[in-house]
Specification:
There is one protein chain. This protein is an all-alpha fold. The chain has a domain at 22-48. Helix content is 48%, strand content 0%.
């Protein structure tokens, strides 16, 4: 199966990122952000 973003219709835009020292830190933050269930809050945190 091929996964594609074409089904979304528009080009995707990279909006935020953050670097972590270890993959463990990154996974822990991913879990925390998903638990918030609030994209606006997560983006605000990642932006800075």
């Amino acid at each position: 199966m091929v996964y594609s973003t074409k089904r979304l219709g528009l080009p995707l835009e990279f909006v935020a990122s953050r670097e972590f020292n270890t993959i463990g830190e990154a996974y822990a933050m991913e879990k925390k952000l998903k638990a918030w269930k609030n994209p606006s809050k997560s983006l605000a945190f990642l932006r800075g």
